[in-house]
Predict the 3D structure of the following.
Amino acid sequence: RGVLFQQNNGEACIQSIKCKSRCCLRDPDNCESHCTDKGSEDDLCHTQTFLGLYNECPCQPGLTCVFPKNAKTFKIIYGHCKKIVVKK
């Protein structure tokens, strides 16, 4: 049995599930993909993969990918990682 999450950040990858960070980020300039950290507060983010790769990683635990409201476009819409405070 192999370990499912085995690739470290910076290593080439073909699917997010193979990365320890669970994010295989595709570089749009050269189409190479590398494991990288999930998004920090205010980073661009996305929640869906295409063939196991992200154009922008999802957010780190404790953060939520917040998308712009009422955005109408045929392009991919990215959000930003935000800390959601629950009012009591």
In short: The CA atoms of residues 2 and 18 lie 11 Å apart. Residues 11-82 form a domain with the Lipase, subunit A fold (CATH 2.10.80.10).
